[in-house]
Structures are given as C-alpha cells and as structure tokens.
Amino acid sequence: MVTSVAPRVESLASSGIQTIPKEYIRPQEELTNMGNVFEEEKKDEGSQVPTIDLRDIDSEDPEVRERCREELKKAAMDWGVMHLVNHGISDDLMDRVKKAGEAFFNLPVEEKEKYANDQKTGQIQGYGSKLANNTSGQLEWEDYFFHLVYPEDKRDMSIWPKTPADYTELTSVYAKQLRGLATKILSVLSLGLGLEEGRLEEEVGGLEELLLQMKINYYPKCPQPELALGVEAHTDVSALTFILHNMVPGLQLFYKGKWITAKCVPNSIVMHIGDTIEILSNGKYKSILHRGVVNKEKVRISWAVFCEPPKEKIILKPLPETVSETEAAMFPPRTFQQHIQHKLFKKTQDLQAPAK
Ligand SMILES: [Fe+2]
C-alpha cells in the first residue's frame, strides 16, 4: 500500500520532463557559482579539500605518528572536512556496501515504497523524500533511505532492506568498522585540544549512546541542474559524518567565501566535523557549510553516516578547557535536540525576513 504523499524524485526524473516543477527551483541567491559540476570537479586551481592519509595514525614511531595526527587536526581546524585515505576500511567492503545500496535503489519505486517512512507520525526511518516545510515549500532533488545502523541493540531491523539479501550483513560490518574509526578520530581530536584521549568520545555519548545513522542519498539526473539543489546549504549537526559516494561529483563546500567542488578521490571516505564537535571545541574545529548539486548526465549516490549524540541526555557546550579569558564560550548550552530546534527556528526567521 502506498501511503506516502511525498513525490519521489526518481519517478519525476524518469517521466521525461524537460523542465522541473517550481517547488524544486531554488531562489536565485542559493544558486551562486553553480557551473557544470563535472567541469568544476576537474579544476585544479584554487583551494582544495585536504586529503588526510591515516596510515601512520598509530605508528610506533612517535614522530611519524605525530605528523599524521597533526595533519588531521589542522584539516579539522581549517576546513572541517577532508578526504580520508588509508583509513583501515577495506576497498572491497566499501564496494560491496555501495553495490548493496545501489541494488536497493535499482528496485522499482513500488517495491521501495514498501519501506516508505512516515514523517508525520514520527517514523523517520525508511525510504523517503523531503517534505516541503511550511515556510518555503522548497524541495530537494533527491530520494533517500535513512536508518540507524549502530549500536546494534538500537536498530529496528524491520525497516532494513531485505533486498539485496546481503544488505544487512554488509551494512552491519561497515557500521561497526566506522564506529572504530570514529573512536580513533575522536581521540586524535581530543589530544589536539590538549584533552585526554577518550574525552570527546565520552562527551558525545561513548559506545552506548553515540548513534550512527545512515542516509543513502539518491540524486536522479536532473533536466535543469542549474536551478535545483540535491541538498540545500547546511552544516551537519552530527559530531562526525562519514561519506562514501559513487564517484559522481556533487559535494560543494563553502570555504573562505567561495563554493569549492570536492574532487572524487578513489577509495576515500569524506569526513565532516559536525556542529557537535564544533560546539564542544568552542569553534576550534569547524563545521563547514556545504551543499549537494545535481547534474543532467549521471545519477549520484552517496552514503552518509552521521555519528550523533543522544537527543536529550547530554548538554552540549564548549568544554571548560577550550574557554579562557581571551576565548569566551561561543555557544550557549543546549541539548542536541535543542540545537536542532534552534537551527530550524533561525532558518524560519531568515526566510521570513524581508528580502535584501
Ligand atoms: Fe551534510
């Protein structure tokens, strides 16, 4: 039974339309420096998202180890986003996770609708598309599949794709390995602030409470990519976000006043520092503004895993060690849920403000 009222972008894209419905046309001010994403990705001049090689993150040679950790720390402070290579998760596993996700999205829309989420009743896990919010009525050019993948005891297996048959196994192994990588990254970021190694991990909920939520983003080909966005500009609310993609460009970062298109680095994982770590570090680590653009020629798919603190249990605020007489706390204390609400509220206010 199809209960969802949200239009699937995939159905719209495959209907052969040459112009996109007005709900998908973004306001002019959001469409700066769009260009052709394939051309943009090839450009070598200007700032580039850093690539961080994690091979030596646990090296026994303290000098070698420090050099690696220092680079990660610098990238987190300067950009807040990076391509991780030699991160310890095998190419084969990443390939298979991606194949499984692709196989799910290759099912007919009617099949996927059996997994449809129901945002109105709070069932946010499953297959979905963005619902227009009341204020702007704007939509994004993507469909997605969203579900909690770690800790294992908090998963709702009834919503996980049953096709392909290996989806559950592969996604579970991948989630577990990412969780290990998150611990490693958090320990380097802790040491980078002069904190004890396990501190940030503890502050975001530890093994029991830090939630890993996977969102597979499916961006169909778009007949008017210069007018639409796959994902509107935002910063991630998470502590960390890890992203795989199918090597089709689309991620853009707002760095030093300009939109930069991320290159597709083979076998890398794109990692974002999210708002949670930005807050805890009192702005020393950056949560960068980014967006997803679409194109006419190729379907883009990305697999984002958001590592998030529990919604209510933890008050997020700059850690005392990051605050001093000369560095006042830049963020008021808020739970994760309050932080999300605050962002929504601010966005609504901005939209209601008279156009400049
Ligand atoms: Fe994001």
Automatic annotation (TrEMBL):
Pfam families: 2OG-FeII_Oxy, DIOX_N. Keywords: Dioxygenase, Flavonoid biosynthesis, Iron, Metal-binding, Oxidoreductase, Vitamin C. It comes from the Eukaryota. GO terms for biological process: flavonoid biosynthetic process; pigment biosynthetic process. The keyword Signal does not apply. Residues 210-309 form the Fe2OG dioxygenase domain. Its cofactor is L-ascorbate. One of its GO terms (molecular function) is metal ion binding. Belongs to the iron/ascorbate-dependent oxidoreductase family. This is Fe2OG dioxygenase domain-containing protein. It comes from Rubroshorea leprosula.
